[in-house]
Amino acid sequence: MRKIVILPGDGIGPEIMEQTLRILKAVECPFEYIEKDAGMTALEKHGSLLPEDTLQAIGEFGIALKGPITTPVGGGFKSINVTLRQTFDLYSNVRPVINLPGVQTRFDNIDMVIVRENTEDLYAGIEHQVDADTAESIKRITRKGSTRISRYAFEYARKNGRKKVAAVHKANIMKLSDGLFLRCCQEVAKEYPEIEFRDVIVDNCCMQLVVKPEQFDVIVTGNLYGDILSDLCAGLVGGLGVVPGANIGERAAIFEPVHGSAPDIAGQGKANPTALIQSAVLMLRHLGENERADRIMKALLGALSDINARTGDLGGKGTTRSFGDAIIARLG
Ligand code: NAI
Ligand code: MG
Question: Which CATH number fits domain 117-236: 3.30.300, 2.30.110, 3.90.105, 3.40.50?
Answer without folding.
Answer: 3.40.50
